[in-house]
Amino acid sequence: MLTTIIAIFVVGYLAIALEEVINVNKTASALITGVLCWTAYVLLSTDSEIVVDQLSEHLASISEILFFLLGAMTIVELIDAHDGFAIITQRIKTKNPVYLLWIICVLTFFLSALLDNLTTSIVMVSLLRKIVPESEQRKLMAGMIIISANSGGAWSPIGDVSTTMLWIGGQITTLNIISRLILPSIVSLAVPLLYMTFAMKSSLQAIPVMTGSAAVAEGEQNGASPIEGRLMLIAGTLGLLFVPVFKTVTHLPPYMGMLLSLGTLWVLSEILHKDKDEEDRAPFTPAYALSKIDASSILFFLGILAAVGVLESTEVLSDLAAQLNALVGNLDVIVLIIGVVSAIVDNVPIVAAAMGMYDLATYPTDHRLWEFMAYCAGTGGSMLVIGSAAGVAVMGIEKLDFIWYIKRISLLALIGYLAGAGVYLLMF
Known about the structure:
Low-confidence stretches: 209-221
Number of domains: 1
Shape: globular
Radius of gyration: 22 Å
Largest sheet: none
Order of helices and strands: HHHHHHHHHHHHHHHHHHHHHH
Number of helices: 22
Strand content: under 5%
């Protein structure tokens, strides 16, 4: 039975990793893999009722992550629909490319922690395309946006899906992960950023830059007033920041706080546009925002987390953890390897598997294993352009070439990754 399940999982995992080669969407591969793993498990098991009960238990924990992501994505889409992010981007005035690089990277770093690294990278690269016309120049900055977004998302419980999974699963707590990972994450960005500033300064020649209102004017106007955009940005940001507070006070799962924030923002959007007719109001409604979110990502997480659930239920992951401990021996080295592997394949299944490999009874909440894993899985994906959701998004928008990224960005990301990891190990 175990051989069959592992074979299905490996084939499905390869299909996900080779998405661009086989031209099959990774969401389809993940869904098929998840269902087939559970099908094989129940058909080959002697007690189907136990298998169904285990599936229900895993579905409950998986649903918490999916509802959380659904609410967060909708809130961000609502802010974007009201041009809320333009309030931030309009304040970028510099024509010095080095200053611009620093502003964009620092802004991306902190926005990723408040929103999430995928959304932030899309917003920042879209802005970059408006204000930096030169292609090679823009590609270098886009590569740095990927590093910035992943570094910024790693230290926040809502900044990266892998960190969010650990937070929802009870492996980490909000204040602890922020306080212990913010410095390593800053270092993982600062090192490549400093290298880019000095060693590659010749590549950052002065360029004509469209800034502020000129950049916004070139884009499409959606009809939202500046006051409405500002109000939605403030309300949405406060709503996202409210989620960890809600969890701490009530001890309810994070998705409950996220749904409460979404409901509040929904009411606010209805009030803001109550005097408009149906056609004019439609682009600003949460219903429209729901139609714009990346639903395929939600289904991808469902499929891959379901597949990993089978491996956990059959104790494959716990046996793998024991073998790794015996072979490598050092947990820090194992987690560093996990971070490198997350650059090759998606960090979501990697972290999901690790959560099944190491239980909370042995490694309790806020154990350094979970903290270091959040850092490594979050920042390790920057080493390849396909290693993170942010990288894949930027690759699609900016048409980054896989080989170009390896030549120009991968080494910087690796140096930053190791530097941040070294800082964490020295600190704790």
